[in-house]
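Morning F.,

Quick status update on the modeling queue. The single chain you submitted on Monday has been processed. Sequence for confirmation:
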Amino acid sequence: MPVARTRAVALLGLAGGLVEVEADISSNLPGFSIIGLPDAALGEARERVRSAASNSGCPLASRKITINLSPASLPKHGSGFDLAIAVAALAADEVISRQSVERVVHIGEVGLDGRLRPTIGILPSVLAASRAGAETVMVPRANADEASLVPGVRIVAVASLRDAAIWHGAELEPIPVEELALPSSQSDARRTPDLADVVGNPDAVDALVVAAAGGHHMFMLGPPGAGKTMLAERLPGILPELDAERALEVNCLRSLVGQPPGSTLDTRPPFEAPHHTATAASLVGGGSGIVRPGAAARASHGVLFLDEAPEFSASVLDALRQPLESGAITIHRANAVASFPGRFQLVLAANPCPCGQYGSRDSECTCTPHNRRRYLARLSGPLLDRIDIQLRVSRITAAQLRMAGEGGTSSDEARQRVRAARAVAADRLRDTPWEVNAHVPGTWLRSPGIRLPPASTASLDRALERGGITMRGYDRVLRTAWTIADLDGGATPSPDHVGRALFLRRGIT
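Structure tokens below.
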């Protein structure tokens, strides 16, 4: 008998490639072999597939069945190959049409009773199949809404292996089964808090708007109760909604960690706030076997908030230095390299000392100067040098609370200002590969056509000469100055804009 073929998808990071699944039935002693570099979960597919086929009314032949996953050198992980293996074996046994299965990409895990279980990573898998030229993809019915988010692909949703065989031409009577459903997702209930809830601290609110308008990283230093977490949680609410391409990428990342997007793409910028006990693998991604995205990757096009930043391990924090510069996360393994997007806004929050009371007007700090220096030294200089806005946040007093009045700047008002400023920046950068000021390299900002006059950068030049900032810090102040000018409607940054940007850069010193 000729070999039957179909296709599946192997994911490596967020990228995926088509895998040809070949099935051959010979007259040797009965057996079931899977070759082509499968992992343990994929190697166990032979037992799942044989039982599922038998319980679906189309048992596999009692002969030698060999399944080859090609290319054989590509690592393959997980149970998402089950459906492709099952239909390829049935096609080799001439239970279903060989021509039909060749035209379809199959993704899904089968249960012992033949029902198809919902599979994580369906969205990036279907997207990878689409980009590889596939026109039809068969998925479990529970993943149908998620798979249909990819445009230009015909999605065939089936509840069981029997239904899949019938769709491919098997002469079987359909039998209704109880569909396996996805667990309920909590992401839809996520509420974005409003910036109007913040009372007092107008400098911190203004700095937050600047960070949102330019995509700048931010570090807030202040005692407990000053509102650092409250401010950070409101940053996603003043960011513009994601466009279709970025929303698809963000939802693909969520799908990889078992958070399916549902029937519509979530266009809200993500917000990730890992605990300070997080490991490097949980923050940037990794794991044994299947490489999963970490919190930094899931925060792409959104906000990564690290509260109590000095409590994080120094090696974990320094793992962020590479994605902060490149906007991508690359994870190396012995036999593969996985890549994830890493273009996020980093927001750090820290107390000024271990007890948290240093600098407070109403409390006394019990920490020695040595302990205070050692505490903040956990944040390395190279990491802080990559933070554009470094701000000290103070507790508000009762008098400030009364003077603040009612109804501060709302998230809708701030978002409109952010959109307007980003539109100005996008128009200025329309002939470049960048869209926001935080991504513009200093060489471009200091180029002859864009360079600011010496009168505008006088304070910044003095800070550089005195060693108050590094050359990287110089460029980052320029980026922030352009953002402030965009918010104020200025054509170019004035000396006041540069001075304000320098203050935001050195606000904690």
